[in-house]
C-alpha cells in the first residue's frame, strides 16, 4: 500500500475521531486530539515509529489534565483560575528547564499538555467564549509536541495568552459576569498574540495541521536529488552539532568551510578589494572590453554569517557567465549590528557603485542587484528602495530569497526540518538580527509585504523544493507578475536551500549559475 493511500485512510479515521471528540467532549477538546493523531498517523505512514512518542505523550497528558482539573472544579466550583495558574507555572518551568535540560522534553511536554487539559475543562465550564484561548494553546502545544522548530514562538504564544487569562481569572473568579468579562479579556489577548507576531497569517492562510498527502498542491513531488543526498551524507559523517545550538563564531567558521563545496575559484580578468564609503566590497572584472554592466551582489547567511570569501567562487562564476562586473558587498552582520544595519549598507553600496562605476570600468546605466537567501532579501529590498529613490536598476536576481519573515506557508511546515536550513536555524538567525517582533512586518525585512510592487525591475526568482523558503519565493514572483513586473520563477526539483554554492558536487548548481548568467547578460545588454 503506497504512502498516499495510507495517509488518506488515516485522514478518514482522524475525521471520525474528531467528530466524536466534538460531540462527546466539546469543541475545546478536539484540536489537540486531532492535531496529535494526525502527527502520529503521519509517523506511521512514513514508517518512523520513533515520532509516535511525543504526540502520544501530549494526548495522554491532555486527557489526564482534563480529568484532574474537572475533579478539582467539582470540589471547588469557584476555583476557575487554578488551572490557569498551573499553566503559568508549567510555562515558567518550560522556559527555564528546556535550554538547561534539552533531554527532558517529554516530561516537560506532558506537564504542558496536562495544564492545557485543565484550561480546556475550564473552557467547557465557561462556554465558547474561551475558544480563542483554547485554539491558541492547543496550537502552541502541538508545535512543542511535533518538534517542528517553533519552540520559542510557541512559548511566547502561551505566555501572551496565559498571563492575560490568569490576571482575568484571579480578578473575576467570584463575579457573576465572569463569562462576558473573560470573553473581552480573551479578545484583548488575541490582539496581543497577533501583535507579537507569532500567530501572523497571510491573506490566504493554509492550516499547517492538515494531513500532508503526496497530491497536495505545493508538497514535494520528487525525492531529494541523489547528488544532494550524497553531499548531505558526507556532511553528516563529519559530525557537528545542529547550527542553531552553536555560537555565532562557530556558524561563521562553518559557512567559510562550506565554500569548498562551490569548487575551485574560476579565474577572472581582475579582482580587487575596495570600499564603498564605509562598506567593504570586492570587485570582480570579467574578460573583455568595458565599460561593463554591473551586478551588485549580496551574500546569504541569515544576516549573521557569510562574507566576501564564503561566496567568492559564486561571484567569480557569475562574472564570467554574465559578462558583468560583480561588486560583492560585505555588509555589517548581526548580532553586532542588528536590523536595519544590513539594509543601510546594501543601499549605500548600490549608491556608491552608481556614483563610482567609471572607476572600475562599469556602466552606471546598466546595474542589477542579486543575492541568495538573506542576500536575496537585501536585493529585493534594495530594488524597492531604488525604484523610489534611484538609481534605476535593470534586473534583480533573487535566489531562494527570504522575503516574508512572517511566512506561514506550507513549505515552512513541510521542510521545517530541512535538510540543511531548518525553521529552528531560521529562528536563530532572526533572533540575532531583529530588534523585536515588530521588525518582521517592516518592508525592509519582509519586502513581500510592501504595499506597491509596481515599477520594479524584471526578476529571476529561484526556489528549491526542499526549502522552508520555497513558497514565499514563489508567492513573491507571482505578486511581481500581478503588479506588472516581469518575473520568471525557476523551480528546482530535488534541491535544498544553499544549492547555489554546491558547484563542485551538484550538476543543478552549475546549471543555475549558467541560467543566472544568461539572464543577467540578456537583461543588461
UniProtKB/TrEMBL annotation:
<feature type="domain" description="Alpha/beta hydrolase fold-3">
    <location>
        <begin position="295"/>
        <end position="500"/>
    </location>
</feature>
<dbReference type="Pfam" id="PF06912">
    <property type="entry name" value="DUF1275"/>
</dbReference>
<feature type="transmembrane region" description="Helical">
    <location>
        <begin position="106"/>
        <end position="126"/>
    </location>
</feature>
<dbReference type="InterPro" id="IPR013094">
    <property type="entry name" value="AB_hydrolase_3"/>
</dbReference>
<dbReference type="InterPro" id="IPR029058">
    <property type="entry name" value="AB_hydrolase_fold"/>
</dbReference>
<feature type="region of interest" description="Disordered">
    <location>
        <begin position="201"/>
        <end position="221"/>
    </location>
</feature>
<keyword id="KW-1133">Transmembrane helix</keyword>
<feature type="transmembrane region" description="Helical">
    <location>
        <begin position="52"/>
        <end position="72"/>
    </location>
</feature>
<protein>
    <submittedName>
        <fullName>Alpha/beta hydrolase fold domain-containing protein</fullName>
    </submittedName>
</protein>
<keyword id="KW-0472">Membrane</keyword>
<keyword id="KW-0812">Transmembrane</keyword>
<dbReference type="GO" id="GO:0016787">
    <property type="term" value="F:hydrolase activity"/>
</dbReference>
<feature type="transmembrane region" description="Helical">
    <location>
        <begin position="158"/>
        <end position="175"/>
    </location>
</feature>
<dbReference type="InterPro" id="IPR010699">
    <property type="entry name" value="DUF1275"/>
</dbReference>
<keyword id="KW-0378">Hydrolase</keyword>
<feature type="transmembrane region" description="Helical">
    <location>
        <begin position="79"/>
        <end position="100"/>
    </location>
</feature>
<dbReference type="InterPro" id="IPR050300">
    <property type="entry name" value="GDXG_lipolytic_enzyme"/>
</dbReference>
<dbReference type="Pfam" id="PF07859">
    <property type="entry name" value="Abhydrolase_3"/>
</dbReference>
Amino acid at each position: 500500500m503506497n504512502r498516499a493511500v495510507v495517509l488518506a485512510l488515516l485522514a478518514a479515521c482522524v475525521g471520525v475521531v474528531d467528530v466524536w471528540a466534538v460531540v462527546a467532549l466539546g469543541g475545546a477538546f478536539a484540536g489537540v486530539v486531532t492535531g496529535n493523531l494526525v502527527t502520529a498517523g503521519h509517523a506511521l505512514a512514513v514508517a518512523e515509529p520513533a515520532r509516535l512518542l511525543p504526540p502520544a505523550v501530549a494526548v495522554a497528558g491532555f486527557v489526564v489534565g482534563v480529568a484532574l482539573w474537572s475533579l478539582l472544579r467539582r470540589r471547588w466550583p469557584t476555583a476557575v483560575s487554578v488551572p490557569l495558574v498551573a499553566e503559568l507555572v508549567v510555562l515558567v518551568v518550560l522556559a527555564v528547564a528546556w535550554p538547561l535540560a534539552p533531554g527532558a522534553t517529554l516530561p516537560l511536554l506532558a506537564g504542558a499538555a496536562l495544564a492545557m487539559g485543565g484550561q480546556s475543562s475550564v473552557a467547557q465550564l465557561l462556554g465558547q467564549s474561551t475558544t480563542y484561548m483554547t485554539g491558541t494553546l492547543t496550537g502552541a502545544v502541538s508545535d512543542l509536541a511535533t518538534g517542528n522548530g517553533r519552540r520559542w514562538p510557541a512559548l511566547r504564544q502561551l505566555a501572551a495568552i496565559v498571563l492575560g487569562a490568569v490576571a482575568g481569572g484571579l480578578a473575576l473568579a467570584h463575579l457573576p459576569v465572569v463569562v462576558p468579562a473573560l470573553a473581552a479579556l480573551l479578545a484583548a489577548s488575541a490582539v496581543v498574540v497577533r501583535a507579537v507576531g507569532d500567530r501572523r497569517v497571510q491573506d490566504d492562510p493554509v492550516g499547517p495541521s492538515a494531513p500532508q498527502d503526496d497530491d497536495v498542491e505545493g508538497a514535494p513531488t520528487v525525492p531529494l536529488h541523489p547528488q544532494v543526498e550524497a553531499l548531505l551524507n558526507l556532511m553528516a559523517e563529519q559530525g557537528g552539532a545542529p547550527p542553531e545550538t552553536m555560537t555565532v563564531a562557530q556558524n561563521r567558521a562553518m559557512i567559510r568551510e562550506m565554500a569548498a563545496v562551490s569548487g575551485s575559484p574560476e579565474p577572472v580578468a581582475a579582482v580587487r578589494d575596495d570600499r564603498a564609503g564605509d562598506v567593504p566590497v570586492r570587485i570582480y572584472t570579467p574578460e573583455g572590453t568595458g565599460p561593463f554592466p554591473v551586478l551588485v551582489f549580496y551574500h546569504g547567511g541569515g544576516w549573521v554569517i557569510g562574507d566576501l570569501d564564503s561566496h567568492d567562487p559564486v561571484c567569480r562564476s557569475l562574472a564570467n557567465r554574465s559578462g558583468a562586473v560583480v561588486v560583492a558587498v560585505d555588509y555589517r552582520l548581526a548580532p553586532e549590528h542588528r536590523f536595519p544595519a544590513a539594509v543601510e549598507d546594501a543601499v549605500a553600496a548600490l549608491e556608491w557603485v552608481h556614483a563610482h562605476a567609471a572607476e572600475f570600468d562599469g556602466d552606471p546605466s546598466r546595474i542589477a542587484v542579486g543575492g541568495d537567501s538573506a542576500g536575496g532579501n537585501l536585493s529585493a529590498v534594495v530594488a524597492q528602495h531604488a525604484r523610489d529613490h534611484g538609481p534605476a536598476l535593470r534586473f534583480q536576481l533573487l535566489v531562494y530569497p527570504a522575503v516574508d519573515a512572517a511566512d506561514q506557508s506550507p513549505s515552512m511546515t513541510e521542510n521545517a526540518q530541512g535538510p540543511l536550513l531548518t525553521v529552528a536555524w531560521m529562528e536563530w538567525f532572526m533572533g540575532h538580527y531583529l530588534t523585536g517582533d515588530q521588525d518582521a512586518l517592516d518592508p525592509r525585512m519582509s519586502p513581500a509585504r510592501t504595499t506597491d510592487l509596481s515599477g520594479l525591475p524584471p526578476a529571476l526568482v529561484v526556489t528549491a523544493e526542499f526549502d522552508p523558503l520555497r513558497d514565499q519565493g514563489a508567492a513573491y514572483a507571482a505578486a511581481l507578475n500581478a503588479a506588472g513586473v516581469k518575473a520568471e520563477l525557476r523551480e528546482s526539483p530535488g534541491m535544498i536551500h544553499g544549492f547555489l554554492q554546491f558547484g563542485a558536487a551538484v550538476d543543478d548548481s552549475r546549471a543555475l549559475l549558467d541560467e543566472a548568467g544568461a539572464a543577467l547578460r540578456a537583461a543588461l545588454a
